[in-house]
Automatic annotation (TrEMBL):
SUPFAM superfamilies: P-loop containing nucleoside triphosphate hydrolases. This is ABC transporter ATP-binding protein. Keywords: ATP-binding, Nucleotide-binding, Transport. Residues 10-241 form the ABC transporter domain. It comes from the Bacteria. The lineage of its organism: Bacteria, Pseudomonadati, Pseudomonadota, Gammaproteobacteria, Lysobacterales. SMART domains: AAA.
Length: 321
């Protein structure tokens, strides 16, 4: 007796999109996301992420190819496929003059959920999002982080098996972002498959188990997060030094040394290289290291290496817009 094969949460095959102005946004994209995964879709601006998400969520028409959500073809059975999928867009797109409870209940009504059941679900989702005490407030009075959590709570009203988040933490500060990570981990742990697009690469490294990097309409790398990070043969450190750095830094064979400011060095070196060689060379040049720390974002290095685009690196390390 053959054992039933569990369908992919998302299966994309040779997906292509050419806009009317001739721009070829997707050039044969294929990928699979397994049920229960937390999957990152990364790429620089203009890489094709938004077009891909738009097609999956049926907001953009494809030129060619196939997209299936839990083995349901989104083109042939759009209504059925959309009931399996929840989308949290980057833009805040709810009525700012409605109350959070009403926003969730009305959204559920669009999907045929009876009002009594919708009210019960709305309370559960608002409590989960830590927004129940704001349920009867005007939504425009919520903070930026609360509005983002409200978007997630709204998407969860239909109990989607696949949740797609397009830059869910854009524009919020670090503390709020990390709080939202806890919410997303809880949703994923409950069995919901999540696909995340983000420019905060630290976010992907902390949350996601698998990823795909898209650039110029093609998938340039994909696979388990750990396996991709293991491909990096360069290790980075930030060294804090006691006195002001000299104008000329010593040359250390095999290592790249740059001054971040008058008291901080940025060092990249092969993983196999002995760090004591770096310390000895610096000490010989009169540069005394007071402390050191690893550069935190190895995924950022991989991204830049795969695409040759350093813009997302700045977005990952800079303040939120």
């Amino acid at each position: 007796m053959n054992q039933a094969v569990t369908p992919a949460a998302l299966s994309v095959r040779d997906l292509r999109k050419t806009y009317d102005n001739g721009v070829e946004a997707l050039k044969g994209v294929s990928l699979d996301v397994v049920p229960g995964d937390f999957y990152a879709l990364l790429g620089p601006n203009g890489a094709g992420k938004s077009t891909l998400i738009g097609i999956i969520s049926s907001l953009v028409n494809k030129t060619a190819g196939e997209v299936r959500v839990f083995d349901v073809d989104i083109h042939a059975e759009r209504s059925r496929a959309m009931r399996l999928l929840g989308l949290v867009p980057q833009e805040l797109n709810f009525n700012m003059f409605e109350k959070p409870l009403d926003i969730l209940v009305n959204y559920a009504g669009f999907y045929g959920i009876p009002r009594a059941e919708a009210i019960v679900r709305a309370e559960a989702e608002l409590r989960s999002a830590q927004l129940w005490d704001k349920a009867q407030m005007m939504s425009r009075t919520l903070s930026g982080g609360m509005k983002r959590r409200l978007m997630i709570a709204r998407a969860m009203m239909t109990r989607p098996r696949l949740l797609i988040l397009d830059e869910p933490t854009a524009g919020v500060d670090i503390e709020i972002r990390r709080g939202m990570w806890q919410t997303l981990r809880r949703i994923n742990a409950s069995g919901t498959t999540i696909i995340l697009t983000t420019h905060y690469l630290e976010e992907a490294e902390n949350l996601c188990r698998n990823l795909a990097i898209i650039d110029h309409g093609r998938i340039v790398e994909s696979g388990p997060m750990r396996s991709l990070l293991a491909k990096l043969d360069v290790e980075g450190f930030l060294l804090d030094v006691e006195d002001a750095l000299p104008d000329t830094l010593p040359e250390i064979p095999g290592a790249e040394v740059r001054a971040v400011d008058a008291h901080t060095l940025d060092v990249d070196m092969p993983r196999a290289m002995d760090l004591n060689r770096v310390f000895a060379a610096l000490d010989a040049a009169g540069i005394h290291v007071r402390s050191m720390r690893n550069k935190s974002n190895r995924l950022e290095e991989l991204f830049v290496r795969m695409t040759g685009d350093a813009t997302p690196a700045a977005a990952a390390t800079g303040a939120a817009a």
